[in-house]
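[09:14] KT: can someone run the structure on this one? pasting the chain below
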Amino acid sequence: MGLEEYTTTGGNGGGIVWAEAFKAFERAKCIWLCEEMFVSQDETIGQDTSCTQILWVSWNVHAFGSPSRLKDDQSLYIWAPSPAHAAVGLSILFRLIEASNCLQFHVTNSLRSPCPLDECPVPALALSQLLTNNRKLMQLAIVGFCLNKNLIQALEAVNWSELDIDIVTSSFTSLGKNALLKSLLRHNRGPTMLLGSCELEAELLANVIPGNTRLRRLTISIDINACDISREHSVDLFVKALAEDKGLESLSFCKVPFSDQNWSTMCQSLSRHPRLKQLQMLYFSSETEAWSATTKTSRTQQLVDMLQVNTDLCFLRWDAGQRDERLFQDEIPPRPFINNHRPYLQAIRKTPDEWRRQLVGQALAKVNENPTIQWMLLKQNVNTVFGGRAPERIFHLFY
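[09:31] RB: done, C-alpha cells below
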C-alpha cells in the first residue's frame, strides 16, 4: 500500500520526541501511532486496510479571522479496527497537538452512528493534559460522541473563561449526564455550547439555567415519546428558569410543543433577558398544523410585545406555518434588524455636535435602501439634521 511508517524512539515523554514527531505529519502520508491505529491527512488512504475511519481531528495555530487561518488548518484522519482500538493512539496524538500550542482544536466522529456507550475513543486524561498545558487554546469542539463522566470532568477542570467548549450533536452516558449538570450547576464550568441532539431533558436543564453565566449557546429538544403532560411540565420548568438566566446568547427550540401558557411565559422570560442575541424555533411538532388563526395571531403578537422590550435580540427565526404571517412581516423583522444596528445609533448620538451632522449624513447615505433605519436616524437626530431649527410640522412627525 505504500504506507510510510514512523517509529517514535528516543527522547522524553515515554520514548517520543514530541517536536520531531509532530513535524513528521507534514512529511508522511501515513503515521502508525500504535500497532493497530494510524493517522493520515488523506481521508481515503485506509480504505484498502482492515481499519475503519473512526474520527478526524483538526487544529489551527492562528487566531479567529486571521488571513492565515484557512490555509494553515491541520486535519488528520484516524483509522483503527474499532473506537476502542483508537484510544491508545489518540493519547499520543493529543500530546503531539498539545505541543503545537494551537488556538483551535476540533474532534469529530467519522462513524455514521454514535460510538457505543463504552467505546468513546477520546482519552480523558490526554484531553485534560492538553487543556491544562495549552493555555493559548481558544476553542475546543467535540462533535458526535457519547461522553462519559471522565470526559466531562476533564472539561470541568478548565478554569479560564477565554476557552470556548462546544459539544455538538453528542449524547451522554447516565453518569456523564449527571456530571455535566453538576459541573454547570455547582461550578459554572464546562461547555459553553450545547447544540444539536445533545439528549438533555429540558426539565434537567431548568435546574442549571438560573444564575448561569457559562453556557452561551443551547438547543432544547423534547422527547416526542413522552406523554403530553410530561412534555408540557418540562417546557414549563425551562421557560420559567429562563427569567433567571444571565449567560445565554443563542437559544434554539427544536421540536418543542408549546402550550399557550408556556408560550406566554417564554415571551415574558425573554423580554428582559440581559444577553440573548439569537432565538430560533424550529421543526415544531405536527400539533402546530391544527393551530387556529386566533392562536397564531396571539402568539405572534406576544413575540412583537417581547421585542418591544428586549432591545438586544438581533436574530429571530420562526418557521412559517405557526405564525400570523401578515403581523409577523409587518412588525417582527425590522425589530431584530434595528437592535443589530442600535450600538451604532447610540454611538452617533454620543458624537460631539460639531461632528454629528456630517456623521448622520454619511450614515443616511449608507442605509439609503432601509427606510426603518433612516427613520430612526432622523428621529434621534432631528435637531442635528435641521440645525436646531426643525419646522414644527416636521418635528411632530417624529414626536
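[09:33] KT: thanks! Residues 343-398 form one domain.
[09:34] RB: yep, looked fine to me
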